[in-house]
């Protein structure tokens, strides 16, 4: 592609609202443009990278035995009512109504739609297992779109769904898809971790997130400093150190106002509301309650914290309130609890004796320095961008939507399902976060919009123009994708934009073109070397490999 004929609208200045490096560089490099908050157009450079990511995903999905289809983005609301998620999913679900008053959702995900497609077809164990996938635009009404493509209202996603007659079959598909994801992200050049995660509104059990490591990441990964253990912060179990409980002797006593008793003996109360009940959680004052763990313990699909002052007296909760406690306070004796509603502090408390606790469980967030759950080393934190997730959905959707099959004994059973997603546009941004320097992007060779950026320093110089044209033709014949900067721009502008765009190889036809000599450099180190133009193919293939 000749750059003089291409649509690459680069920017010199960093847009004021671009917070993340990936957002800044994708805008400045002419890869994307914003149309509305959280809504972007992929310009030719950006779309070339997207298509390369998609090609890798398709190859690995096909290798794993999945079949591609394409479902509509507009999904009938009645399907979401069948699954029970029309109200559960929340305000992120974009809803609309047609002229006949029929409600639809713009697809944020595809469990309901895919289940409706297969429930009348995959009706016998003889047709199972089957895995189907699509690459499609998805929609979520983000309250605060930010970081460019990392948190948008419209995004490109690969979603796959598998259907099985047995749990063993699902386990095999889950492992196959897990390995396929590892190959996808390895081929994309991402530095990532596969971590244990919570299934959230998706439902089901057993799920892993694939987190690309990046400081801008909104997720915190807890990992061991001595093993390969890693988990999403909300899912990492806490292993309490062995502590001998002190003997309790004094009865509870109350004091007016707040009493300074020292942080080690201070506990606190956190109040939550589910759809059906109020939950009170006790834990150390220095710890943070993990609402995902609380939600899983009470078996609710929705849990919300009550604001300060909305809870009742924690020392004497009302009848019907479920009282739980983090296991970290079980070993405490003679501790203190401040009641905000009464402005009193209860001292000399023994949680087991005095607080009517239903059960002691792991209910707090793990902290840096805690023992690793696998018994190896201590916990450290890192930031990550979620680029993929795999779920074992089980029968959550098939039961709700009557997607049944006949087993070998002729009995009707719900299909067992798995779900597997990759955020393609998120992957694009995550790669930018990991591959850049102060001058611009540095694309991994597998994803670069062009293999080679050929720069003619002065197109008015006939020797430079003729040599550039010859190089351009020969590299294209050998299968390399070349962006030829043939524009009548100042050399400094050309070099700066080349670094910004970030193609793996730069070839510069300049003053020595008359001697059949060019400069060649890898974008990642920018070290220029003079070579004969006759050796270009040999050098380029050494960098990028031969092309068919």
Features:
548 residues; alpha+beta; BirA Bifunctional Protein, domain 2; YbaK protein; Rossmann fold; 3 domains; 9-stranded mixed sheet; 8-stranded mixed sheet; 13 helices; 24% helix; globular
Characterise the protein shown here.
This protein has 548 residues and is α+β, with helices and mostly antiparallel strands. It has three domains: 19-185 and 391-433, 2-Layer Sandwich (BirA Bifunctional Protein, domain 2); 253-361, YbaK/aminoacyl-tRNA synthetase-associated domain (YbaK protein, Alpha-Beta Complex); 450-544, Anticodon-binding domain (Rossmann fold), CATH 3.40.50.800. It contains 13 helices and 31 strands. Strands 3, 7, 8, 9, 10, 11, 12, 21 and 24 form a nine-stranded mixed beta sheet that branches. Strands 13, 14, 15, 16, 17, 18, 19 and 20 form an eight-stranded mixed beta sheet that branches. A hairpin with a 5-residue loop joins strand 11 (219-224) and strand 12 (230-232). It starts with 20 loop residues before the first helix and ends with a helix.
